[in-house]
Amino acid sequence: GALRCEIAMPTPDVSEAQFTADGAQLVIAGRDGTLVLHDAASGARVRELAHHSHGIDHIDISPDGSRVAFAADVVAFVDMASGGIVGQLRPHREHPYNLDFDAHGARLISCSTDRSVVVSDVRPLREQLQSRAEALALRARIEPELRARLAGGASVAALADEMCSATCVLPSDERAAWIALLATSSAH
User: Fold this and answer.
1) Based on CB atoms within 10 Å of each CB, which residue in 21, 56, 130, 156 is the most buried?
2) Residues 6 or more apart in contact with residue 97 via CB below 8 angstroms
3) CA 53 – CA 41 distance, rounded (Å)
């Protein structure tokens, strides 16, 4: 319970403070829109990470420590290494006030005064495009087998039941590819 350090903030209204994963630094957000990095041992200001035109209500640091997300009038992302806002989302009609990364940092859940809760894919665009390309390649590899099974008399419904059954031993990405192909097959 002993006082380790005290941090004098230029803003009178601090909304939140969080330790980085290694515990060496603190990210402190203010209702004046400032997001500042401090040394956890001494309390010394390291640098301002970002300044937003609206007050920051809540922050969360990604599990890998590379980004800070904050809820203000939008959901915004700040690069921990270089600072600066690197992206924004408007997942709600009204003011977001709380958010949290998932354990892998790939999704972000946010809550809003409009009473909505939204889960957003927040992986970097490069990762999203790579993941999509891999899924499309997997579908292209599976499609000839699907056509052969349908030509052999299997029904779309029976194949869908097979892919969704608890006894299916395919990896989840292959099952997802089969189901996506079956969904488009049944539409034609």
Assistant:
1) 56
2) 57, 58, 71, 111, 112, 113
3) 30
